[in-house]
Amino acid sequence: MSLSAASDWSIAPDGVDARSVPQRRLYTGALMPAIGLGTFGSDHVTGAEVAEAVKGAAAVGYRHFDCAAVYGNEHLIGPALQEIMAGGVPREELWITSKLWNDKHAEADVIPAFMKSLTDLQLDYLDLYLIHWPFPNHHAPGVDVTSRDHAARPYIHADYMKTWRQLEILVERGLVRHIGVSNMSIPKLELLLRDVHIRPAACEMELHPHFQQPALFDFVRAHGIEPIGYSPIGSPARPPRDRMPGDTVDIEDPVIARIAARLGVHPAVVCVKWAVQRGQTPIPFSVTRRNYLANLQGVVSDPLTDEEMAAITGIDRHCRLIKGQVFLWKEGQDWRDLWDEDGVIAQ
Ligand SMILES: NC(=O)c1ccc[n+]([C@@H]2O[C@H](COP(=O)([O-])OP(=O)(O)OC[C@H]3O[C@@H](n4cnc5c(N)ncnc54)[C@H](OP(=O)(O)O)[C@@H]3O)[C@@H](O)[C@H]2O)c1
User: Fold this and answer.
1) What span, in angstroms and rounded, lies between the C-alpha atoms of 280 and 269?
2) Angle CA(42)–CA(47)–CA(50) in degrees, nearest 5?
3) Number of C-beta neighbours around residue 297 at 10 A
4) CB contact set of 233 (below 8 Å; sequence gap of 6+)
5) Protein residue closest via CA to atom 19 of ligand 1
């Protein structure tokens, strides 16, 4: 990615110079902006609002956008990206991710699903394409967590590798620069790394102060895989179906609140700032200009102190928010079975 070509269009008077945003160097040598904008509007933000935020975020210095077919808005983000590029931001300065949804894991479905995202996004290549979940179990968007796919199956490694091989073909054809995974566990990644031709460049995973996943975080970094952190603010506006008694609230944590008060920022900004400083790439969602601008300003301002970083390490509550219940494949299971917490891939 050429940083020298950053255009003047990109810099709103109160925006952040895209060249000053930290970058991650992936194992291929490519640079990825160390913060991206999430684009999942959940149930309450329309695709049009998200597309508007993509344009607004680019105008204040964002260059990295986390998309997915299942978010149902790529056809609206595509024209927004066209406008951004027509405004003078070169394609090579943008980092665009998309993801393969669970009903498209079959070998014959992967490349057509990718092409649909590519066409909707109005691009001729993607920077990163992820397998969204390691389960082929389908459920309609917005269903209750008790909903189950009658054909649901556990993780079957041979099947996952067939899907992965199709992603490798996309790289070989020059249609995507990097491929990666999401919602994986260490045991699943160990199998994947054993069998790949092209290694995953990134692992998208839930990461916020109350859910730091230190073992998986260390594992992926040790294998040259970039951790991309989703729900970095603790997804405060997630739909009711994704809320359970016992879930904790990162932005109400006294440690986060104390640091926010020192900096004079919203606690959300502290979560994002901590994420970048820790070494992951957060992808906070926001359609509110004041908020997405504050998040970006937070990552280019003075770092948190060592004491503050240590204090945030100490507030991990091991509180997974996106539990994935809809992917369970048999009666009587617990959502923890999806995450191989005992080191064994549940069958
Ligand atoms: N791979 C996966 O399976 C997966 C799963 C979940 C999410 N994701 C990705 O991760 C992205 C982010 O996760 P998320 O949407 O769950 O949650 P999140 O980024 O943790 O939280 C987003 C919420 O925080 C608010 N917010 C953002 N910045 C703020 C600020 N500075 N001050 C106050 N409030 C602020 C936003 O409201 P406003 O809009 O009003 O600012 C929005 O309601 C998604 O959009 C998606 O791209 C991926």
Assistant:
1) 15
2) 85
3) 18
4) 208, 250, 251, 268, 271, 272, 284
5) 284
Query: Tens of pLDDT along 99-128?
Result: 999 999 999 999 999 999 999 999 999 999
CA–centroid distance, 238 to ligand 1, in Å, is 8
Q: How many A from CA of 41 to the centre of ligand 1? A: 8
> Which residues, other chains included, contact 61 with Cβ-Cβ below 8 Å and sequence gap of 6+?
10, 11, 12, 15, 16, 17, 18, 20, 21, 296
**Core vs surface per residue 320-336: b (16+ CB within 10 A) or e:** bbebbbbbbbeeeeebe
Q: How far apart are CA 298 and CA 272, in angstroms?
A: 7
CA distance 234 to 192: 28
* 183 CA closest ligand 1 atom index: 3
Q: Best substitution site from 102, 259, 286 to test ligand 1's pocket, by max atoms within 8 Å of Cβ?
A: 286
Amino acid identity at 301: S
Q: 288 CB less than 6 Å from ligand 1? A: yes
Expressed in angstroms and rounded, the spacing between residue 37 Cα and the centre of ligand 1 is 8
pLDDT of residue 139: 79
d(CA 37, CA 287): 9
* Ligand 1 touching residue 238 (CB < 6 A): yes
d(CA 297, CA 286): 14
Q: Helix (H, G, I), strand (E, B), or coil: what is residue 64?
A: strand
Strands 31-33 and 37-38: unpaired
pTM over 0.85: yes
For residues 212 and 206, what is the distance between their CA atoms, to the nearest angstrom?
A: 8
> How confident is the model at residue 240, as a pLDDT?
87
Measured torsion, CA atoms of residues 213, 219, 225, 228, in degrees rounded to the nearest 10: 0
DSSP state of 229: E
Residue 81 has phi, psi (to 5 degrees) of -65, -40
Residue 261 Cβ inside 6 Å of ligand 1? The answer reads no
List of domains in the chain? 8-338 (3.20.20.100)
